[in-house]
What does this fold into?
Amino acid sequence: MAEFKHYPVMLNECLDALNIKEDGIYLDCTVGGAGHSAEIAKRLTAGKLLCLDKDIEAIQSSKERLKSFKNVMFYHCDFKEFKKAMEFYKLTNFDGILIDLGVSSHQIDSKERGFSYMQNARLDMRMNKEQDLSAFEVVNEYSQKELEKIFFDYGQETFSKRIAENIVLAREDKPIETTFELVDIIDRSVPKKVRYKKGHSAKKIFQALRIEVNSELINLYETLIDLTESLNSKGRLVVLTFHSLEDKIVKDAFKFLSTDCICPPNFPVCVCGHKRQANLVNKKPILASEKEQAENSRSHSAKLRILEKI
It folds into this structure.
């Protein structure tokens, strides 16, 4: 198996945000290449670290990288199913939880995974290779209206309708099997004058397909609420986002969790009875330093938000 490479974005900022106690219990929801987890584990003595990932290659690679740490546990699942892992290891609450919502360097750089519009491979994009749905099924089996909605909602693509139309036309002759076949259709669908104005013409469509295939935004809000409930008092939930759609969900969830009354502003008195569960540690998201952005292009869009349970 190829080495599972991952460059941890805002590593020091994440470690500071977690406010790690050496005897604390921590959860890394998306272990990836264990870049963040390795540094968390180094700071623990009597504490424990639970690592999750839906990508079995990430779990296998991280086990190897962290094998010298006896206080690290692993569980193969989507972090939205974190309660299964808690039950398996008989854990109750955490002192800190980290979620890195970015795609790992390994997944993008592994040609055969089909995540990249820069490398030709079979359309795939599955983070969990055991699931049935891949980008191939989405592109070849979804209706034109379904494709258009995905491209517009998840990719915020201006030319969603035209791209969806041309995909449906192309697949009448033969299935669209590879990333480059799809890129060619996208290129032909976007006017030349705007084709590379804001990055690669296929970037938004590939993002939209990846989000759909991996259900990245489904139940994210509810999971953030559940994760906060599983924190000890003064425990922290630390979330790294990489595009505006997921960041808005995190921002909205954090606002709900850190607000007392959620009644409409025109209500004369509170009738909801809602009580905040946590406080915002940073009201505005933390961004990667100029130095990090220069060294790692994937940190450009990263935003770090921190919540501390009351």
